[in-house]
Amino acid sequence: MKDISLWSVLILIIIGFINSIILGFYSKEQRGVAALANIRSFIQLSILSLVLAKFAKFDSYLSLFAVLILIVVVAARTVVKRTKGKLVGLKGAIFSVSISVFPNLLLGFLIIGQDQFLRPLFFIPFVGMLVGNSLNGLTLGLNSLSESFSARRDFLIQSIGFGANHKEAILPLMTRALKSGLTPILNTMLVVGIVSIPGMMTGQLIAGQDTFIAAKYQYFILVAIQTTILLGILVVGFMVGHKIKNHPEVLVGENA
Amino acid sequence: MLDVKRLKIYSPKILVEKLKVSDGETLKIEGSSGSGKSSLLLALMGLKKFSCESFSYNGEVVKSLHAEKDDVAFISQHTITADQKVEAFIRTVLSYKKNRGVKFRPWIFEEFDKIEIMKRPLATLSGGEKQLVSISILECLSPRLVLLDEAFSAMDRATDERLWKLMEKWFKERAVIYTAHNPISLDKIKNETIEL
Prior knowledge:
The complex is a heterodimer.
Chain A: H1 6-26, H2 28-57, H3 61-82, H4 90-112, H5 114-117, H6 120-151, H7 153-161, H8 166-191, H9 199-206, H10 211-246
Chain B: E1 2-9, E2 14-21, E3 26-30, H1 37-44, E4 54-57, E5 60-61, E6 72-75, H2 86-95, H3 107-111, H4 127-141, E7 145-149, H5 157-172, E8 175-179, E9 192-195
């Protein structure tokens, strides 16, 4: 594939800065963010390319495991930072992201095969793409759960007063959280191939891969993202339900 | 039925030396706003931290009451909130494992000429109507021990009296612990009062 020259990259950076200046006419706050995003994205991607180039030379599963842990921890931190309230702590988020990612790794291992799946230049982008794309859905779902937990304490207390167990009490909150979290990926899946050609497939097509193989890989990543979001929200819901079961006083706090 | 000794809550500070209620008895918890009436009921339901010398229900030592497994129901002072229609909310309550097999009869709504309430979203109901829904659900659940936290507070006097006429026998057959700021019909059968 033809290389993009550094002069061309410089032009792209300038275009990015022009965009941020135009944005600045409407929002000074966003101008700074846009400028930072513009330069950071190039620096981060360049560093990633160097890291991936280094990892490509390693033949150790331990290094892949280390990258996996790093991605999971950073993702968990992002989930905690972006989720309102204190429903999920860092430990809980790490547990949730780990549990939700693991089955997809197993699936990838089984479907794609050890040789290709555990190749650093496949494994690292795959995990990054999976976790990165799942973050939005996870955050949306967990925010909904957290907000419902605060706003609907009275409903939870009354449900328990009418005989609901912890799972039954939390069910309506889970329904909302799953709807919020999964709607974006379900919408994407509904229009994929018609309105949009997503990243992985585009990349493979540009690299000259067979179109149907590219479609199957893309389908795999969509199902994996859906599974990650679903499991992530379910795990946190399970933890919240467990908390209510063992410490029902969390529903009331000190405000009774 | 329920026998609790030296129950202490720390926030707000409450000490109840003795709280005892048996079948057919009614116990009123009285006190000014913020005195901890609701906290006491929440503590009995295990929804508020407390300590006590002894806590027994039906002769068995337990940590607190559990509506999920005990023959108990609790109506919170905060009127029910859900994004559902009344009939859907009732269906949800009856779908709980403990309540399976319970049939809901809307006879209280019929008596009040409010059968259309079943089709209305909970959010559009007045406070008094929501409390009427809660009492109707309570009636069909038919628990032996009932904890009511300001469960009639949003009803007007006429509604309270009319409801009392319909449910006097029902309340007399049960053990009831309740809180109320204003005089209500249930006061007619109270056996004991705890002042906070």
